[in-house]
């Protein structure tokens, strides 16, 4: 049995799928995707079709992290809704099969854009894809959580209170050195949590363009990927996550839009994207958006710190990339403080 996040025990997977997946026929080949820092993800190829397998990484894991069972559940629940997701086939929670839990879903044969600049695309495509991204986000936040069986998918109470507490704990659990600006941000963010406004929706938790697959010949979204951080919470966390990504530097590292003449590239301003989203959801606007943006920078710092800790412990899916990412923790914390102060 393999205990590596880089490889799969093909014999074990083949035997399991032969017994549990209707219509499955080997032989099987597997190739690891370079993306998917958190839960190692593999393309499974058989003579007749392709699937995707996502597994928990091996090693000692933080409590509640890498919850592939939750990823499977939420996508299964959204099947047939207005939120596009890949078809779920099976969930295996028996660690004895390949060394950790995993699930198998359809492979979505479409386009994936690594960043919102969408290099090589024309302005009409950029405009259409970002508008589709906006539409899908609004649809996600309008899902009737009771009707799809997800009302218990997250605990009751103030989402931001819960999340700031959770990520502060996870950050402390994976802390590798003192970062004073992160300490300040955690303290100030906890003190600035807005009062409840009655919005309790499904949230993705990592909503950005590179976690989406689009049709090859149109701007239609075929599926949102990477649901590991999804829960029932506050929709503005997802909206602010998009804006946070756009404020990052352009190129492979930041994958953002900082300094880009957006109008010249067919891309909306932050304000335009937020206004379109509000229009779709029938909202008058959003007060104190700086808090939500600050929260997203804080959470990203926490996520990146966790990735760094796994690299140091020898459990990272992509160790070199993990150590590179780890250097961004203070920068995310500084951006979070700046957003909070701007309000």
UniProtKB/TrEMBL annotation:
It comes from the Bacteria. This is Phosphotransferase family protein. It holds the Pfam family APH. It comes from Pseudodonghicola flavimaris. PANTHER family: AMINOGLYCOSIDE PHOSPHOTRANSFERASE DOMAIN-CONTAINING PROTEIN, HYDROLASE, PUTATIVE (AFU_ORTHOLOGUE AFUA_1G12880)-RELATED. Residues 30-253 form the Aminoglycoside phosphotransferase domain.
